[in-house]
Predict the 3D structure of the following.
Amino acid sequence: MKAERCVELTVLDLVPFGQTGSQPLFYALRLSSPDWQQWAPGQFVMVRPFSFGLEIPWARPLGICHLDERHLICFFQVLGRGTRRLAQAKSGDKVLVWGPLGNGFAMEENTPTLLLAGGMGIAPFVGYVHRHPQPWNLTMLFGHRPPLDCYPVDSINERITMDTLRETIPGDLDNLIFSLEERIKDNAEQNGLVLACGPMPFLRTVHGFVVKYKARAQLSLENRMACGVGACLGCVTKVRSNSSKEEGYQQVCTRGPVFWASDLVLE
Amino acid sequence: MDLHVTLHGQRHSLELKNPVLTASGTFGYGAEFSAYGNLSSLGGFIVKGLSLEPRQGNRTPRIVETTAGMLNAVGLQNDGAEYFLSKTLPRLPWQHTAVIANIYAASVEEFASLAARLDTDVRISALEVNISCPNVKCGGVLFGQDPDLAAEVTRAVCEHAPHKHVMVKLSPNVTDIKAIARAVEAAGADSISCINTLQGMSIDYRTRRPRLANIIGGLSGPAIKPVALRCVWQVASSVKIPVIGVGGICCCEDILEFIIAGASAVEIGTANFMDPRASFSMVQDLPRLCEECGITSLQELRGSLKLDEV
Ligand SMILES: Cc1cc2nc3c(=O)[nH]c(=O)nc-3n(C[C@H](O)[C@H](O)[C@H](O)COP(=O)(O)OP(=O)(O)OC[C@H]3O[C@@H](n4cnc5c(N)ncnc54)[C@H](O)[C@@H]3O)c2cc1C
Ligand SMILES: Cc1cc2nc3c(=O)[nH]c(=O)nc-3n(C[C@H](O)[C@H](O)[C@H](O)COP(=O)(O)O)c2cc1C
Ligand code: FES
């Protein structure tokens, strides 16, 4: 039988990450497994707990961190009303999940690859680092504000060395920007590959340096999504087609979320 | 149970294998949902609004979630009629279910050219005319907000699409929807779909900015269902042509309510975003619910709203 792309899954458990007081804001969500044979790191799922009812209409896009025949694991941070309600899930609760969606990151075995993550942008790299056949070609820079133990860093640390930069005072941001520039410049000189995921200001900074040093780079965008399947045209981003130089909007959910930096016109 | 529906138009009738259609702009061109169900099982699908020329659409953010609904200001991004006919349509299961083209234009003349272009294509079962758009020649007043303008557009489309069932989609953003309905009926419309989105707005109090780049947008989803039901009931009570109910429909129970209010068929919109299987599930579940409720014919249910005698 053909695997169902939209399935009702069961919450196995919800594990808080890090010490963020009585109301944890970071979680690993473990769901029963959908029968999907294939997925690529950078792809995502739309997650809609039954508890959203009619009140919260849209599912929330979350990166796939791990998927096998036992379970599907996502990491998420509580931001607004949807993730707040998701954080109240109990083992046994039902969620509607559709995916795997989007394209995923390029994986080139022998290319020196620089992973740049800002905050929860680290999520897709958990799977990426595990899937990469030659992890010694990977280096990573991770910028974050909350403490490091809020993020799923252990499984990444097992396989590659990761440099982390925590932003606590405004001066730290300059450090992060400086390091980003240095690393991107280095990578471009080695004719490597840069992969970035994080909030928009972070991606804009990365995009600026990527253009400056002509690095080969892919950025994963986090746009608001309603459908996740390319139908609503709500999640679009402006893209310049290489052949015609024409600009137009493309769906982040189906044509992305990962785009070559050279195609993106960040507004 | 036989779910077959005939929309008896004044000019042309439209046969549907069941009353469940998908609403324009919420189902892409169908193919986006083919991984989630059998497109051919639907009563039909209404494709994303088509214009004569390609349109880029509005700036982003274009969508925002609200309580039990959403606002959109997509700005009718589409590849244009030519691209649709040559590239998209051949891949749709038009032999097995009704493909309805939703059309949009900025002037009566443009509506006429677009209707003429689509009229000769046998793969298209009907045209749904979106009159919730500004008339650039009349200072931007919406065609759908003025009975004369609405009638003029309807007449132009009917005249230039002599082979097609013409469905006119009404805007709820009007003082008297019955007057608009009667005007388009008199102008030749074969059926009326209602409602399009309600104008709305969302503000972020922290940044003091609107959440949509376009400032205002169209509200859809479960939040608008009561408004849609009211409009369907008022329209169905004032015209003889069939009415297609749209607005906030999320389950089969909702469908029955619209039929009782007077709808012959329904369109599923925002619910497709809440669950990509939604429309397919409703087609499947409808016979069971009817059976449970002792309903043997949709035709008999239609407009069966019980009112106290006064
Ligand atoms: C492809 C993709 C992968 C993602 N992967 C992860 C992940 O693995 N872990 C994680 O914690 N977060 C991830 N995000 C971001 C996550 O989807 C948002 O943080 C979340 O939707 C916020 O919902 P909310 O209910 O907390 O916020 P609200 O403010 O209540 O949300 C309102 C609406 O805006 C949308 N929205 C708000 N913030 C964002 C944002 N930053 N990005 C996208 N949509 C947003 C929501 O989805 C919702 O539709 C991803 C986003 C995308 C597009
Ligand atoms: C994202 C989006 C895009 C839409 N695009 C169109 C369109 O192109 N043409 C049109 O006539 N209606 C369009 N609509 C309106 C819907 O077809 C429908 O009338 C409306 O959403 C109400 O139904 P619902 O509450 O079930 O979504 C759009 C709605 C949404 C949410
Ligand atoms: S989320 Fe609907 S088109 Fe991308």
About this structure: The mean pLDDT of chain A is 92. The radius of gyration of chain A is 18 Å.
